[in-house]
């Protein structure tokens, strides 16, 4: 039996990351496995389900984990640290006295309890004294109807978490009616309230992205761009002196710094720095997901022996949210972004090998396991390799962002 996990960000009202929901699959039934709790030692989640361990999968953030009634009744979560997880009670459980007693016991032991996909059914009332978080699917629901239905929850001392939040406008409206935690891709969608001109400073950064997509680098031109931005230069020197690229190297000039990294790594590093600066003031999770996709696509590309100069797969992943970062329509961004046509096609969701890599990355992060299996098969990759690539990409990204 093989096991897989995806993580989906949960953000607060300031778009700061507060947790990840973990989505499991047992490799056969695409569901959380039915395991005898007597055999449910820590390796079930930490070794089998979470190969790297919960903290490494979440980067130290809190983990939301779904549990069925039987595993709750038999106190299956009790070997996990209550400070590091939130127990999610699934919407299809039968509310019985055994379940109520189990939830109370877990609550008394310090666990945070959430109701998943809350449907306002009266059956949940006996559990309310032990519930800390209520998750509500807001997809295709009007703000007016949501406002009316959640009024009855205001008497409870609970956190309201909105799932499937898709737009910045929806996010703002949900905050107004009482939601404080959010899940969905609202943080990555461009706001088309008004068209913003792309500043000259951002154009300089986009020029760096253009350089990174060329077969041969123009070191003099790149040095000139870095020279106009002390912040970028500082970041370059800081990264060169980090374990990622080797440390304690005495750099004598900016051009020396650029050459020291090595051309292929420099191309990826330029893209990383450019995205970091363009992402300033935006939700940090956009940067995190973009980097995970970039590294994931790179690993897949290397496995399939693609030509890596320029690093098209890496650039495809790192630019996969560029429209949301710049708050512009994708076509407007691609019109001014001088990157390879194959990358542009992949970002437009036109079918080519790069688009397949990107689709696979998205399916892994969303826990769409069946689609993931289908694309992996088309690319002649094992699902085990794809899962390992995702975990490697997550670990690499969390390491890069901690530097």
In short, what is this structure?
By secondary structure, this protein is α/β, with parallel strands linked by helices. The chain contains 19 helices and eight strands. The chain folds into two domains: 4-188, EAL domain (TIM Barrel, Alpha-Beta Barrel); 200-402, Hypothetical protein af1432 (Orthogonal Bundle).
Q: What's the Cα radius of gyration?
A: 23 Å
Count of distinct strands = 8
Kindly state the mean pLDDT as a whole number?
A: 81
Alpha-carbon distance between the two ends: 36 Å
Strand order of the largest sheet: 1-2-3-4-5-6-7-8
Total DSSP helices: 19
CATH topology of the largest domain: Hypothetical protein af1432
Q: Note the main sheet.
A: 8 strands, mixed, barrel
| Total domain modules | 2
CATH class of the largest domain: Mainly Alpha
Give the SSE string: EEHHEHEHEEHEHEHHHHHHHHHHHHH
Give the full name of the CATH homologous superfamily of the largest domain.
Answer: Hypothetical protein af1432
Proportion in β-strands: 5-15%
Please tell me about this protein's structure.
This protein is α/β, with parallel strands linked by helices. The protein has two domains: 4-188, EAL domain (TIM Barrel), CATH 3.20.20; 200-402, Hypothetical protein af1432, CATH 1.10.3210. Helices cover 48% and strands 11% of the residues. It is built from 19 helices and eight strands. The chain has helices at residues 43-49, 54-58, 69-73, 97-108, 143-150, 168-176, 200-212, 219-227, 230-240, 254-261, 263-278, 284-303, 312-318, 322-326, 330-336, 341-347, 353-366, 369-378, 383-402; strands spanning 4-12, 17-25, 62-67, 85-89, 112-115, 133-137, 159-163, 181-182. The chain has an eight-stranded mixed β-barrel.
């Amino acid at each position: 039996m093989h096991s897989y996990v995806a993580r989906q960000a949960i953000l607060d009202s300031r778009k700061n990351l507060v947790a990840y929901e973990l989505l499991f699959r047992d490799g056969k039934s695409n569901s959380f496995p039915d395991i005898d709790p007597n055999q449910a030692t820590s390796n079930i989640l930490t070794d089998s389900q979470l190969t790297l361990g919960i903290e490494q999968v979440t980067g130290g953030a809190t983990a939301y984990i779904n549990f069925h009634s039987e595993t709750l009744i038999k106190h299956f979560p009790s070997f996990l640290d209550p400070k590091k997880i939130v127990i999610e009670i699934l919407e299809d459980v039968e509310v019985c006295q055994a379940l109520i007693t189990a939830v109370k016991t877990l609550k008394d032991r310090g666990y945070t309890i959430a109701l998943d996909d809350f449907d306002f059914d009266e059956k949940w009332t006996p559990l309310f004294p032990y519930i800390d978080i209520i998750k509500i699917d807001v997809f295709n629901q009007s703000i007016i109807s949501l406002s009316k239905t959640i009024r009855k929850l205001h008497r409870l001392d609970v956190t309201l978490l909105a799932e499937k939040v898709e737009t910045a406008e929806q996010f703002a409206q949900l905050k107004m009616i009482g939601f404080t935690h959010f899940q969905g891709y609202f943080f990555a969608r461009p706001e088309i309230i008004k068209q913003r001109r792309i500043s000259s400073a951002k154009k300089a950064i986009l020029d760096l992205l253009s350089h990174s997509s060329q077969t041969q680098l123009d070191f003099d031109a790149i040095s000139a761009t870095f020279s106009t931005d002390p912040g970028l230069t500082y970041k370059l020197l800081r990264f060169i002196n980090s374990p990622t690229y080797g440390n304690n190297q005495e750099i004598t000039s900016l051009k020396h710094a650029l050459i020291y990294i090595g051309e292929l790594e420099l191309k990826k590093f330029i893209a990383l720095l450019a995205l970091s600066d363009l992402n300033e003031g935006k939700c940090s999770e956009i940067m995190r997901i973009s980097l995970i996709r970039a590294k994931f696509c790179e690993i897949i590309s290397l496995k399939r022996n693609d030509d890596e100069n320029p690093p098209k797969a890496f650039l495809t992943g790192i630019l996969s949210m560029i429209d949301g970062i710049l708050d512009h329509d994708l076509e407007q961004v691609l019109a001014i972004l001088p990157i390879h046509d194959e990358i542009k096609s992949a970002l437009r969701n036109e079918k080519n090998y790069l688009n397949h890599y990107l689709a696979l990355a998205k399916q892994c992060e969303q826990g769409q396991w069946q689609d993931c299996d289908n694309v992996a098969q088309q690319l002649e990759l094992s699902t085990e390799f794809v899962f390992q690539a995702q975990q490697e990409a997550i670990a690499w990204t969390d390491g890069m962002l901690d530097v």
